[in-house]
Amino acid sequence: MNQTHTPDLTVNDTISDDAELHLRAAQITPLSWAQHKALREALISAGFPPEVASTTPLLAANPQHMLEQLKRRRPELLAPGVIAESIHIDVLVAGLVRAPENLRMDEQRWAGGFKMPRYTTYTENGTAACMLDLADPQLGLDKEKAAAFFFDQIKLIDAEIELKNKYGADICAHGIRIGGTLFPALLRFPGRVPIGGLETGDCYGRTYFVQEKEGMTASKVLSALEKVPTNATELREHPLQKHRASLLTIAGKITAPKPSPINERERLMLVRAVMPATKIVLKVKDVSLVEARRRIVAQHHIEQPTPFSSDTAWQIRAEAVLDSLQAKGYLKTHPGIDAAETRRWLDNPTEIPTHIAHRDDIAALGAATLLLDPDTTGDRHITAALRTRGVFGRDRTRARSFLAAAVIARAVPGHAGRQSALERALNAKGLRDMGVDTRPIDEILVDARSELADARLHRARGNTAIPPMGPATQQIALRGAFYLTCGTGDTVLLERSALGAGKGEGQEPGQLLASLAATRQGLEQLAQAIFDGRRSHPVRRLEKTQSATDQSTPPPTAETMTALGLRALALTPDDPIEDPSASAMLTEDGDELRREVAAVTTRLETMEQRRDDGATATVIQQRGWKDPHSTIAEDLENAVKLLRNWEMRHEILGQSSSPDLAYSDADTTGADL
Fold first, then answer.
1. 95 and 217 Cβ atoms separated by less than 8 Å
2. How many other β-carbons are positioned within 10 Å of the β-carbon of residue 470?
3. pLDDT digit string (tens) for 66-102?
């Protein structure tokens, strides 16, 4: 099955929350035979067929709570024209029937790929249920064929869920946090007694991911539900009752006066066991139960509430992260400004007078707080806070840069179209783990020039490791990037690469920013963007050898920087320092090779996105691509082999002969983890 949307979680995705674990342990209580009988009678009275009423008590996490709910049931409006009696309880997931009639599969049904019969409404003696009748003679299924047909069709639904539902990894690691709606169902197979249970109307995916990880296959579920207990002994030996006993053993270790440790397998078993606050539909008024089910499920999946915009979603996440960092003391602050005042700056930057703080001060403060090195303590707090707002697994790939851009863009009135470019700029690795520097830009620039000179000398001597941005360079780069993306004028200067960009045009803002900060003229242009941005002037274009200066008058139109001019500047390397050594020339060769590799990568990304007008899938997705000359892949493989041989030679010989020679990852690309 397609696992694209259900990636394995990393260690940092797991949140240890003792309070949550205690709550889950307290959700599950024992089920006695007396409670089973009382619940069965109450459920039949509420409108369940006896077959469903006999198995439903096994699914109640807290049987006594279910009994109390049944005594107080009342009608409610669940969907247009659907008035129903229902109860809200916590249920055990292990015994839920994965809905064999699944509205998600209607497209495949009409295309002939899904053949499960639709439900009919079972009614008898004032009770009702959704009936799946595989014993209908028109289907021509015997006992063995009917079972095989049923499980094959369920596998089709499972595959669709795997493909479309992106929350599987979170559910498998942390359990179900939002309940669903369950309906009474009867399944009739040839030569077998009807099987009664609760089916998962609008929460199939949640149930599937838990059951799949716990080894509770669809066949095991039906086998368990087929065993209807008729006395206390049979109840005790029932598979679902044994499952409850295992959960109670784990829960007892947690809730005991002297708690005992549990292992990871026990923790997972406990957190996956329950679907909380789940609605169980007992009976409906005026329409059939099957029609009511379809209306309810359709409303949940088709007529969803108005979703958040992407910007709103990240602002909500930003609030959670800033709250967490402030509470735990990880909020970066300006000298002399406490955390509460700093938080007010980040929340309402447009209200701060410019003589107290410039907009780029807010940008630098936001980046210093939110762009932390991966796996540091502060970064793990960010991870935990993001998880509370639905960011997990592969969705975290660039969460930090999206988060920082959302906060920084608060200082930009009408920032539509600019925040995306800012986010791409913040994706540069060199901006991670910044400090807070409130000195005048002139002073910071002096230090940045010194850092750049040291870095150039380092490389001119043949050292191939790329030095990280120094602290002063970080300040100039971040503040300059802010004005180049969110400054005065209608044009974003540090703009995103266009889809289908040509040769040399595919670099994203983060790559361009790192390249600018690594050259003398690029650094000066970044500083000039700060000077002009603070005065709300268009950014002045500096000629070669010119230095950044703070000027009170705006530049003439002919002397302003353009997006194309800035990109050209970023892609122009510094004049090499005079050094005849072969090592220095190798360093220059390596820089040029890195730019060529980046161009190849951009070309491949462009090819991957090509699609015909109106097509939903790209050409690559539809049929892949083959090199007509069959040489590209081979040439690339040979080039990689050659580079690997050089690296091996360096590891064996280079380290001992020249300790300064060391390789490291480039500082211009990479995902923001």
1. no
2. 18
3. 999 999 888 999 988 999 999 999 999 999 999 999 9
Distance CA 671, CA 428 (A): 8
Cα(628)–Cα(633) distance, integer angstroms:
11
Tokens for 532, please give them. Answer: 């002009």
**What are 547-555's contacts with CB under 8 Å, separation 24+?**
548/445, 548/524, 550/441, 550/442
CA distances, 15 to each of 171, 262, 270 (Å): 13, 15, 15
Instruction: Report the candidate in 671, 662, 672 with the shortest Cα–Cα distance to residue 466.
Output: 662
Q: What backbone phi and psi angles, to 5 degrees, belong to 2?
A: -70, 120
The residue written with tokens 């006896």 in the block is 50
Cα angle 357, 358, 359; round to 5: 120
Predicted confidence (pLDDT) per residue in 103-121, tens digit: 888 888 888 889 999 999 9
DSSP state of 286: S
Give the Cα separation of 183 and 331 in Å (integer): 48
**Higher-confidence position of 490 and 101:** 101
Give the global pTM: 0.68
Answer for the pair 362, 408: CB distance below 8 angstroms, yes or no.
yes
Q: Which residue type occupies 208?
A: Y
Alpha helices, DSSP H, located in 492-581: 509-517, 520-534, 563-570
Task: Pull the structure tokens for residue 584.
Answer: 């220095």
d(CA 387, CA 15): 9
Q: Are residues 130 and 185 in contact, defined by beta-carbon separation less than 8 angstroms?
A: yes
What SS3 string covers 613-627? Answer: CCCCCCHHHHHCCCC
Mean pLDDT of the chain: 85
Can you say how many angstroms the Cα of residue 314 is from the centroid of all Cα atoms in its chain? 12
Query: Which residues have C-beta within 8 Å of that of residue 624, sequence separation ≥ 6?
Result: none
Q: Are 503 and 554 in contact (CB under 8 A)?
A: no
Among the listed residues 472, 461, 482, the one whose alpha carbon sits nearest the alpha carbon of residue 415: 482
Please state, as a whole number, how many other Cβ atoms lie within 10 Å of the Cβ of residue 81: 13
Q: Which of 402, 217, 203 is nearest to 318 (CA)?
A: 402
Tens of pLDDT, residue by residue over 499-527, are: 444 555 668 898 899 999 989 999 999 99
